[in-house]
Amino acid sequence: MNRREFAKLSLAAGAMGITGFPLGITRSAGQAGGTLNTIIQPEPPILVTALNQQQPTLTLGGKIYESLLRYDFDLKPLPGLAQSWEVSEDRKTYTFKLYPNITFHDGTPLTADDVIFSVTKLLPETHARARGIFVRVESAEAPDPLTVVFKLKTPFAPFLGAFDCTTAPIVPKHIYEGTDYRKNPANQKAIGCGPFKLKEWVRGSHVHLVKHEGYYRPGEPHLDEIIYRVIPDAASRSVALEQGTVQLTQWSDVEAFDVQRLAQLPNVSMTTKGYELFAPHQWLELNNRIAPMNDKRFRQAVMSAIDRKALLQRVYFGLGKVATGPVSSKTRFYEKDVKQYEYSLDKAKALLDDMGLKPGPDGKRVSIPYLVPPYGEIYQRAAEFIRQSLGRVGIDVQLQGTDIAGWAEKCGNWDFSMTMNLVYQLGDPAIGVSRTYISSNIRKGVLFSNTAGYSNPEVDRLFEEAAVATSDDKRQELYSAVQKILVEDVPIVWLIEQDYPNFTDKRLKNVITTAIGVHETFGAVSFG
Amino acid sequence: MDTLKAFLRHPTGMIGLVILVAVLALAAAAPVLFPDSPWDMVGAPFQPPLSEGLLLGSDMLGRDVAAGIAYGARVSLMIGIAATLAAVLIGVVIGAVAGYFGDKVDDAMMRLTELFQTIPGFILAILLVATLGPTLTHVVVAIGAVSWPPVARLTRAEFLRLRGREFVQAAVCQGQPPLVVVLRHILPNALSPIIVTGSLTIATSILIESALSFMGLGDPNLMSWGFMIGASRTVIRQAWWMSVFPGIAILLTVLAINLVGEGLNDTLNPRVARKVRAA
Amino acid sequence: MSMSASAVSGGRGAAIVLPIVGWVAKFVGVVLVIATFNFILVHAAPGDPVQVIASQSGAADAKLLAQLRAEYGLDKPYPVQLAIYLKRVVTLDLGYSYRQQRPVRALIAERLPATLLLTATAFLIALTAGVVLGVLAGVRAGRWSDTLLTIVSLLLYAMPVFWLGLMLVLLFSVKLDWLPAFGYVTIGVEMSPLQRLGDIAAHLVLPATSLAAVYLAIYARLTRSSVIEVMHQDFIKTARSKGLTQGNIIARHILRNAILPVVTVAGMQAGALVGGAVVIETVFAWPGLGRLIYDAVLQRDYPVMLGIFLVMSVIVIVLNLITDAIYRLIDPRVALRAAS
């Protein structure tokens, strides 16, 4: 799901507070100090990332909560709270050594017990994505206060990829143990161990973060404070960036149609890096249970009938690239040597003819409803584009409008023929990709499962083996094989690897440095 | 015939009629003028008006704005008329029941009408379309559901007036059942003000439809003027023509219907002229 | 209409008391009926708010869904939920928003000032400008300025309010760059309270004008026709023969009589005015209740939808009450009766 787009619409109002926050843009030259003004949109309901994983929560909470590791753009682990780590021969034991002198915002030292509590107790209760990974932990031990040892039931290759601050934020055990996590009054204070702590949150206006003096990395954070402003209106966000009143925008803060214009501004630079962990994949989902979508030839015809390059240019304003298969080229284990679907109406028509789906007197072969996700204009335009494209080969697409709840329910309960979806790859195919294709994940009522209903025992086997394989070479081999099968079968019509622009003030340094980009802790960010 | 002659001599009514006929002609000729679907991406995106083959320019997907306006005329008129029929049907039934039976029934019916007039109608329409789902039928139902109270009030007033007339009393005394009295004797005499109100309701229905579509609550399969304006909002800096022309289309159509309605009003029943305008 | 009727039928000493009792009764009745109606409507619709929350966290499973459902009391039967809801409405507790994790009352309270500011400004513009233009046209009936007013008001009456708003943005913001196009205040600029006031006023001009336009047209035409009517009545001719000046006559006699139908119609159209505010808030990104309800509808945030619809209806009732009071103040007949 495109949380960003969703957020925009769902909350769009967000609430623009009437109280204006006096804006001291302290533009200090030099290495240390200064205030970073940026945007949070929509306003998150809560800042505790362990309890809520909506995108704005993760962006803001990333400054407050930290985890054991960070990941570079190629998703290779870097030290986080853990200064070093070891993986055993059998790939079942993971040992992390923590940095000394880590403290929470309330002054309490962070120890191995807090890590074990967060990973094995709290997160499996509150964080659906983390639950899927950390249930595999058989035991966790702390031989000393700075060492954590996790033992897995079976090898699970992506385990080492699950310790970024959006997946495994570490929370203080002394505050949460034995309480009702969601109702704990400390949630309002958002006590983590990140470089910034919550000073003030004026609902509808801004969230004010200030430097955590006891941060464990010497000299960090460089900034004195970060102010996240709630600016619900897209046009106002662009203006704020143009005028320099904010020095950073992320996700869809700047709408696609405005990106090219703003990229010309002299005072800002633009990058689309920093979304590698998420690697949002935009696709057309076909319900594989229903005729004619249950026929591979039909799905291949759809793939050929859509001019995805034109779609990218006209609807997405060129932000992204055409997807070639189930795995994003930005993430690990991508295989580019797969069947190519060039835009060809003749090929599409031939496939449809071949399956006996002949055009009627009105030129229509079949009529299919298309559930338009209510996540804003881009989805609407894309739906219109796809309807016209498929209309050219005789597939009559009828758009159905719906609200967010209606879309979520229909999609989750398989009550659709055709719809669009945006799904994150989450750093490893075993976490973010296989869930869409393996038959064991056909779960009614659950979004982001195998809602298309594709089922192929060979695919199931390959994904399963790859998840527990212990060497990357072996995994690549298995994932390459499964990608070839999937691209041949087209259970999903992959459209676009969507890019999101980060605009940063040219004086800002070290903003986008890891695979989670703007969700990172920002300890190293500085002006000048 | 006299009425027709009177209307033909009504200057603003005739101006309205001429515009309305032009809009109707455009709607009827849409498939001939623009054989391609208005959704087809026929040209380059963001072409200004008078570009090659694009009289009124193209939108962000390269769709012909002129084609959208021609097909939008069909949608606007169709929804305007259908919703008005629904509103008139509800309004006449409620007004007739209230006016014919009077007393407690009248009281109850008028309370209902009053309630519907108190509720912000457009918000109710939004709620209805959003919850039922944005399809042609639901849009018509929603507009009908919020447009009937003026018709009901008018019908009630007419019925109260006619109820006491001798020919109606005579029919009642002869033992004719209420339905017959209503359909044979009262309704035909109350028809002309209802027609006038109905014609003006078409105009407001078109406006409500355009506002719903503007907010993204129109049927996504129908190219409508409100939808075109809604889609143009974010790109208003790049493409003024995308919002200007559909708006002019709505303006002219609604204006024409209002002028025709007032012309009808002046010629059909000068007596209730003020009342209708106030409703 | 309804209020003017009650105003006329209200008897002597009861002229003040009875309407208030009646209004309170009507008020409570309307609120309860609307609340029930809303509740049925939104629960008849497909879509589960829990799915929405889950859909935003990137991963969802049965456990999370059940947790959320229990958390928000959505596992209870509908009649129980309705009873709970009505009981709360009576105590002015509008519930809790699942999506925004805040009390609905707080959400509404935060947005209400913006909507009230917008509608009140629009209403005042429409009323004053409408009456002034109407009187001017009425006393010059038949001249070119009168004809111009008639044409302009016909055009405004036929114009979709959101389109007018966009055209004003195109002219005054995009082309001329005189006024801000969107929003409520300029974001992130340090200002003194006075400057801030001016800033809000600048942001208010376009949306309030767009919203006022159609009512301005209606009021102007109404005023015009009643001015023409009044001018031909005997007491005006008498006043003129007594040697009163034109300005005096207008102020004393014509205006008072001509404004009555305007007040009546203004009361009737309060609902439309509030509805128009929803569209205008969408056009101008004005952070009021209109945008809040639009977003709430999209995400099936039941308590917010119900709460705003109720509050909007209450605003309409209050506006009705105000116009009723104005009517009583200026209608010489009502004033006379109350005095005797």
Report what the structure shows.
The complex is a heterotrimer of chains A (about 525), B (about 280) and C (about 350). Chain A has helices at about 5-10, 55-65, 110-125, 130-135, 175, 235-240, 255-265, 295-305, 310-315, 345-355, 375-390, 405-410, 430-435, 455-470, 470-490; strands spanning about 35-40, 70, 75-80, 80-85, 95-100, 135-145, 145-150, 195-200, 205-210, 225-230, 250, 270, 280-285, 320, 365-370, 395-400, 420-425, 490-500, 500-505, 510, 525. Chain A has about 525 residues and is of the alpha+beta class. In chain A, the strands form six sheets. A six-stranded mixed beta sheet of chain A has the order 14-18-13-17-15-16. Chain B has one domain (about 1-30, about 65-280): MetI-like (MetI-like fold, Orthogonal Bundle). In chain B, helix 8 packs across helix 9 (about 180-215). The model of chain B is unreliable at about 270-279 (pLDDT under 50). With about 350 residues, chain C is mainly α. Chain C contains 15 helices and two strands. A two-stranded antiparallel ribbon of chain C has the order 1-2. In chain C, helix 2 (about 15-45) packs antiparallel against helix 14 (about 300-330), helix 3 crosses helix 4 (about 60-70) and helix 12 (about 270-285) crosses helix 13 (about 290-300). At the A-C interface, helix 1, helix 4, helix 6 and helix 12 of A face helix 3, helix 4, helix 6 and helix 13 of C.
